[in-house]
Amino acid sequence: MKLEIVIAGGGFAGAYCAKTLARALGRESIQRVGLIAEQNVMVFQPMLAEVAGASLSPLDVVNPLRQFCRGVNVFRGQIAEVDLARRRLMLDAGRFTKNTEVEFEHLVLALGSVVDLSRVPGMPEHSLVLKNVGDVLRLRATMINRLEEANLESDRDVWQRLLTFVVVGGGYSGVEMAGQMLDFMQEAKPLYHNLAKAQLRVILVQSGPHLLPEVGKSLGCYAERKLRARGMEIKLNTRVMSMTASRVFFDKGESIETATVLSTVGNAPHPLVVELCRRHGLETYKGRIVTERTMQVKGREWLWAAGDCAAVPMDDKPASPPTAQFAERQGKLLGKNLARSLRQEKPKPFFHRNLGQMASIGHHVAVAEILGMRFSGFIAWWMWRTVYLFKLPGLQRKLKVMVDWTMDLFFPRDISLLLPAPTELLQEVHLEKGDVVFNTGEPAKSFYILKEGRVDLFEGDRLVKSVMAGQHFGERALEGDGVAYFSAMAAEPSTLVSVSEKAYKTLREASEAFRNLLEADGEPERPEARELEPRS
Q1: Residue 74 DSSP SS3
Q2: Cα separation, 135 vs 395, whole angstroms
Q3: Which CATH class is domain 426-531?
Q4: Of 93, 112, 177, 475, which residue is 20 to 30 A from 48 by alpha carbon distance?
């Protein structure tokens, strides 16, 4: 496939670049311009929190790229490799379609950033993230599931763990999501009869001295006061050091039991951009590819970059802020600059004055800084909704959002659970020292392989065996009456792989080598079996 211009990325920068370029080129654009995106929609990120809080439908915050970028050939797929020397890339469209090689004359990198939680042990396995609509729907389903589970629970300790929610990160996303979560849970909890006396906890953790550092200390402190007044717990100057399936550990030595953690931190450069810069010696700034003010990559007039993956200079700063406001405007100018370049005209430099920042903190309250003036409370919330309604692409979605927001003022939020929990055959679990994997007598659900660390097996208080890295345990209970014969506890920080009962039995039946491995290096026999052996 040969195209004159390939735009990689369907976020704000890539979508607005394609839309602007299609208008500039007219009817010829469909043959000349291709947009490659991993999803076939553009997500309006600033309104994701409203979806999590059931104020908006998920369809209100997405725009099909083929409708938004009319006149551009849209391809849904993942870029597997880019060859800058030959000006070609390899596109992977999925399981049932062979990889497609695409040649280009101009390439636009607008891939955004990715989530990387690997620096905090346990966070990749046990926390929820926010990147797309699917993530938000999963969060909403998790909140409803926790209420449903707690409503059937009689143990108060388990009760409290299920109703404790931790949000990591006190920036825009963290504050807006925490506010929506608190609103949703406080409104939904009275519908669960058995939770009348239960304490609901939403805990917001911020590593800095105040919330919303993007809008300044005074508005951040105002947001903190309002959130605390509504019952939110806020931990400032606090970092998460590790987490397990049931507990979060902080840098000050304390920890909190919880079954739900939302991480709004951990943005990292896109690995494809990092690899391109490393391989071709392109200059980077904090992992973002450095461009000229025209958004052309230095030394390559046919290579362009915009949005969160690009360091586009602005005023005396080496890079524009990685926000939707700047990505949209960079995309529009980049589309015009590409059209100018095709006409052999000189592209124009990027310049944009930051109009301000806004954050909704829930309960009809927001904070805002617009053109140097600061607003808070209901007036800021009204401005927040007005501005984002105006920015939302498409008249149809504007009307739908207006209706949904109006209904939200007069009717309760929808607590329908529409996202079923997926069946996970394999799951990696992080444990801290003292964490219990299972206790004697509990139902056996999994077979375990220890990836690193050490897990001790106990019969009462007696140590039966220490399981080391590379070894396994849990098979005796799965092969017996389905009840754990021992207790298993982490003796040090450990990582284990949990294999579901169904997957374990399938492997055992299919592989003689696997059965031999279990016999050669398995866990001890059940206590009752040892008692039947002849005594010497």
Answers
A1: strand
A2: 26
A3: mainly beta
A4: 93
CATH number of 2-38+77-115+268-354: 3.50.50.60
CA distances from 312 to 288, 290, 331, 368, 518 (A): 9, 6, 12, 25, 57
Answer whether 423's CB lies under 8 Å from 458's CB: no
Residue 493: is it exposed, middle or buried by C-beta count within 10 angstroms (0-12/13-18/19+)? middle
Residues of the chain with CATH 3.50.50.60: 2-38+77-115+268-354
Look up tokens 């392109």; give the residue.
Answer: 282
φ/ψ bin of 166: left (φ > 0), alpha (ψ from -120 to 50), beta (otherwise) = beta
- Helix ranges (DSSP H) in 411-493: 475-479
Residue 1 to residue 103: CA distance in whole angstroms: 6
Q: What is the pLDDT of residues 369-402, one digit of tens each?
A: 887 788 888 998 889 888 888 888 888 888 889 8
Q: What is the pTM assigned to this prediction?
A: 0.82
Give the CATH number of domain 123-265+357-410.
Answer: 3.50.50.100
**What does the pLDDT look like over 248-293, one tens digit per residue?**
999 988 999 999 999 999 888 999 999 999 999 999 999 999 999 9
Under 8 Å between Cβ of 81 and 62: no
The CB density around residue 349, as the number of other CB atoms within 10 Å, is 13
Q: How far is CA 85 from the centre of its chain?
A: 34
- Residue owning tokens 């999803």: 39
List pLDDT tens digits, range 485-502.
899 999 999 999 999 888
Give long-range contacts, CB 8 A cutoff, 24+ apart: 212-216. 212/170, 212/171, 212/172, 212/175, 212/359, 212/367, 213/170, 213/171, 214/171, 214/172, 214/357, 214/359, 215/357, 215/359, 215/367, 215/368, 215/369, 215/374, 216/369, 216/374
Q: Strand pairing partners for 109?
A: 8, 305
